[in-house]
Every structure is written in C-alpha cells, then in structure tokens.
Specification:
The protein contains nine helices and seven strands, in the order βααββααββαββαααα. It has 204 residues and is mainly alpha-helical.
C-alpha cells in the first residue's frame, strides 16, 4: 500500500495529480491546501494525501468558484479519519474519484521507482530500466515524441508495454536536470519521421 503521508517533490506531486508544476507551486503559495499538507523545509514538498485535493481544485474549476473549491478542501482536510464527501444544504462534492485516480498514479510511481536503477557500472550511472541497459529518459522522450509501443519495443528488444508507461511517469516526476537533449540524442535508435528536404525557391 502506498504511503499517503509521504512527502513528494513538486514535480512528483504534479505527475500524480496530473497538473503542471506551476499549478502545484500555486497551491502552496496561495495556501489552497492547508499547511499541514505541505512543507517548505529544505525545499518545497507536498504530502501524497494532498494530491487528490490538488487534482480536484483544477479539474473542478469549470464547475465551482475558487472560494468554493478551497472551502471544500479545507473542510474535508480537517476531518480525521478523512472524509471524502462534502455536503451542505446546496452542494454535495464527492472526492473519491480524485482520490482513486491519484492513489493509482502514486502506486504506479512507486513501481517506477523500483523499476529504475542508477549504477555507475551501467552507462555511467544513467537511470536505466532494471535488468537492462535501456535509458529511462530515452524511452520517455521517444514516447512523448509519438513513438508507439510497437516501435519502441522494436527499438529496445525486451521492453514491455508497462515499462514504457512507467518510464514516462518516472521521467515526468523526475525531470532531468540541465539542458534538454535534442530528439536525436534522446532516442538514437529511432529514426526521424522524415529526412525529406525541400529546396528553397530562388528569388526571381
């Protein structure tokens, strides 16, 4: 079972809640979630338990006002054991779907962490899929560029479909530091869709 009280980095929380890093920072800066659900000690951290609230806040933006969403979050977060249904005389909000979605993403992230290793003896410590020499960020970059599972499996024999999904989630939750590599560097085994060049028209 995943640890709902685990402290997550901003990028991990964003990946679990399926929002942007900017959104998570906003949740902290504007105190959209209560202070006991995040920490600013040695960085910016959000408890895994808060991801359901974060996802709710942004998904429900077209249905409820910011004040209504914030009120629901602060009301439910104050109950323990935590309730996931808010009810008053005019409004009923069920947060179970948001909880289920973020719990599933959190469990997948934990699987991704187990799948990825960094060994100085393997590609100089580049994060790879356990038991292989397949770089995690190359798989994720290729998937993000539109490479399908069949194409990725052909490029990386032995790669399973579930590993592709986990690699993408891992990369989203742990963005590589430094300057992003180009498409060729990120996936040298996968050719570009087209190498066709169009000659420039000469001016008359």
């Amino acid at each position: 079972m995943s640890d709902r009280g685990e402290l997550l980095t901003v990028s991990e929380a964003a990946a679990i809640a399926e929002v942007s890093v900017r959104d998570v920072n906003r949740v902290i800066d504007e105190h959209i979630v209560p202070e006991d659900l995040y920490s600013l000690k040695g960085g910016r951290w959000l408890k895994a338990d808060a991801c359901a609230f974060v996802r709710f806040y942004f998904v429900a933006a077209t249905k409820l006002t910011a004040n209504e969403r914030s009120h629901v979050i602060h009301t439910l977060s104050a109950t323990w054991p935590r309730r996931w249904v808010y009810t008053d005389e005019l409004l009923t909000v069920r947060l179970e779907p948001f909880l289920d979605a973020t719990q599933a993403r959190h469990a997948s992230l934990m699987q991704a962490r187990e799948m990825v290793i960094e060994d100085p003896e393997i590609l100089g410590g580049t994060p790879v899929i356990r038991g292989t020499r397949i770089p995690v960020y190359d798989v994720a970059a290729s998937a993000a560029a539109g490479a399908g599972h069949d194409r990725l499996k052909a490029a990386y024999p032995g790669l399973a479909g579930a590993q592709i999904e986990l690699a993408s989630l891992y990369a989203e939750a742990n963005p590589p530091r430094g300057r992003p590599r180009g498409a060729r560097a990120a996936s040298p085994r996968l050719p570009l869709v087209s190498e066709h060049k169009v000659a420039r028209r000469q001016r008359a």
